[in-house]
Amino acid sequence: MIIDFSKFSSIKIGPKIRVKIVNEYNYNSEVLIGRATNTLISPSPPKLALLDERYKFIKTENAYLRVGAKTKNQSLYHFCKRKNIKGFEFLAKLPGTIGGSIKMNAGVKEFEISNNLVAIKTLNGWIEKKDITFSYRFSNINEPVFEALFEIKEGFDFELDKTLKLLRSNQPKEASLGSVFKNPKNDFAGRLIEAVGMKGMKKGGIKVSEIHANFFINTGSGTFEDMMFLIKEAKKRVYNEFGILLEEEIIIL
Ligand SMILES: Cc1cc2nc3c(=O)[nH]c(=O)nc-3n(C[C@H](O)[C@H](O)[C@H](O)COP(=O)(O)OP(=O)(O)OC[C@H]3O[C@@H](n4cnc5c(N)ncnc54)[C@H](O)[C@@H]3O)c2cc1C
User: Fold this and answer.
1) pTM
2) Structural domains of the chain sorted by starting position, each given as residue range(s) with its CATH number in brackets
3) Which residues lie with the beta carbon below 6 Å from any ligand 1 atom?
4) Mind listing the pLDDT tens digit for each residue in 109-140?
């Protein structure tokens, strides 16, 4: 299938290229893409793949939620809200798919996708959470995730839902990849980028957001090279000024 990543990805950057549609039987070491909401795709990426439609489902099985990795985060959020399940409130405004979110250990504050996770289904069958390393925006998963099993806890938290949605209201609405860098320990990447004078800085079509300096937004004609320039510039300036090496949260392919 041909995918135009300048339309498909949330930052609206990337080539128009052939992508393989994969399942457990035909996967052959391609790099899996979910919705490319945290991935910057270069003009010449490695071989890419998307999961096929069979991995888009949500089922309850006894005390567990069984979810296909192609399922959108928001679909799981709505399902849990309807079924009075807690622990997935933070997915309300989190773009992307369950597979990408598990790989990234996506989350908001202390709420992370790994919290309620029980196991993932990979090429080698089911792997339990205790055998996977998860930390802040990190997992050591280096293989495709086809399905996930989550614990069901009763009681969707409407208060938390409201609070988390409010948090989002001050985020840029333009095309972006969310936070470009991870927050360093005890600090905020956005604060550091602002402190080195980069808030509002523009390179080509990419701009460091005026609202949140850790969001680099595409004003329409942004390119891979523009993004890379600003990423390198932010790292250089923050390191020279504060001795802190910013680490990318986004994946660059
Ligand atoms: C406006 C905006 C706000 C955001 N806010 C947040 C936030 O608050 N918190 C947060 O954590 N993130 C946030 N993000 C980033 C992004 O939404 C999450 O990281 C999301 O989980 C990525 O999902 P995806 O399916 O798009 O992954 P992709 O970007 O497609 O992929 C991400 C990584 O996962 C791998 N991957 C994808 N699918 C699979 C699979 N099935 N199996 C194995 N590996 C896979 C890819 O190879 C890549 O390494 C935000 C992004 C945007 C644009």
Assistant:
1) 0.95
2) 2-52 (no CATH), 54-165 (3.30.465.10), 172-252 (3.90.78.10)
3) 10, 31-39, 51, 69, 94-97, 99-101, 103-104, 106-108, 137, 141, 144-145, 176-178, 251
4) 999 999 999 999 999 999 999 999 999 999 99
